[in-house]
Prior knowledge:
Layout: E1 3-8, H1 12-22, E2 26-32, H2 40-56, E3 61-63, H3 68-75, H4 86-105, E4 110-113, H5 123-137, E5 140-141, H6 151-161
Parallel strand pairs: 1-2, 1-4, 2-3, 4-5
Helix pairs in contact: 1-2, 1-6, 4-5
Amino acid sequence: MTSSILLHTCCAPCSTHVITELKKNYTVTLFFYNPNVHPEEEYNKRLEETKKIANALEAPLIEGNYDPKSWFNTVKSHEKAKEGGERCKLCFKLRLEKTVKLAKEKPFDFFTTTLTVSPYKNAEIISQIGRELEKKHNIKFLSSNFKKKDGYNKSIQLSRKHNLYRQHYCGCIYSK
Length: 176
């Protein structure tokens, strides 16, 4: 029997290659939870594109609630932090914490995230957060740097193939 994995999905373009890779060994379910994305129109556009790729790659999608207030509360006093700094760590933890709780509740065998496919995100920091949550919640985190083996470029190619909207910022109002 194949293990199940809950994949936190930041956006459709980043998820393309990750879903393809994970489906080789897991039953994959997507979880779109991104309260950091602003404005709401951008959030809705990313959600619609994620629905499109979930359908195309035959992966079930769970939609998290859009709760920007929780994100603003989480990153409060870190608004001026440099990109990749403390604000980003807090953002990663917020989204992965919600993912692991859902993974435990359903239950899934593993959880992971598409965030590590981006060359702009530190995979080691993300994996460290995932491992901490694994211990705290007693559910396995698949630690992976999806940008390796040309993963980011493969995600770009797959995004073009599926005609996906590609954003030019992580979604955070402070990174725009």
